[in-house]
Amino acid sequence: MSRIVFFNKPYGVLSQFTPEGKWRSLAEFISLKDVYVAGRLDADSEGLLILTDDGKLQARIADPKHKLEKTYWAQVEGEPQESDLERLRAGIKLSDFTAQPAKVRLIDEPPGLWQRDPPIRFRQAIPTRWLEIRIAEGKNRQVRRMTAAIGYPTLRLIRAAIGGVGLAGLPLGQWRVIEGSLKDLQGTFHE
């Protein structure tokens, strides 16, 4: 049986067990040994991180060839219109690759959302909006680069789900572990 860890990663925490510079590490939160990150999140992003001691599951989550959908909530500066979102839905050219078409919609601020520490910058004259963005890729800073490419920089980014596993019931900075196998989780993840 494999160990699978679901962790709600706070802002400012690296997706590794060794601290670096000003960033904290997973070791401050997770006391388990021999588990490894399956699909990292940047230190300035928050939300669901999965760790496991199962190499096959780690590859299934992290490798884009498996097309495992990841859901993000992005708070962006400004108020995107449907025409802006259509550019993301069509696939958008970035400097080094073209992002595959994304599923994107405007949403209200997610209910029960925790306060970020430190809070995002607030500018009274510039409104913000929340987007739900679903992608099966996961290139470096991809969601941030996509929203910037349509003129709406991301101020806050939260990974809300990986496949069928979401943040529901998992408080910020907390983790839970299940014992199982890749086969046990097949139904949990959708493609």
Structure write-up:
The protein has 191 residues and is α+β, with helices and mostly antiparallel strands. It has 2 domains: 1-67 and 164-191, Pseudouridine synthase I, catalytic domain, N-terminal subdomain (Alpha-Beta Plaits); 69-162, Alpha-Beta Plaits (2-Layer Sandwich). Helices cover 15% and strands 29% of the residues. It is built from 4 helices and 9 strands; from the N terminus they run βββαβαββαβββα. It has helices spanning 55-62, 82-90, 142-149, 182-185, and strands at 2-9, 36-37, 46-52, 70-77, 103-107, 128-135, 154-162, 165-166, 175-180. Strands 1, 2, 3, 4, 5, 6, 7, 8 and 9 form a 9-stranded mixed beta sheet that branches.
> DSSP strand (E) fraction?
25-35%
> Residue share in helices?
10-25%
Mean pLDDT: 90
Number of H/I helices? 4
Q: Determine the CATH topology of the largest domain.
A: Alpha-Beta Plaits
User: How many domain units?
Assistant: 2
Name the CATH superfamily assignment of the largest domain.
Pseudouridine synthase I, catalytic domain, N-terminal subdomain
Total DSSP E strands: 9
The CATH C-level name of the largest domain is Alpha Beta
Order of helices and strands: EEEHEHEEHEEEH
Distance between the termini: 24 Å
CATH architecture type of the largest domain: 2-Layer Sandwich
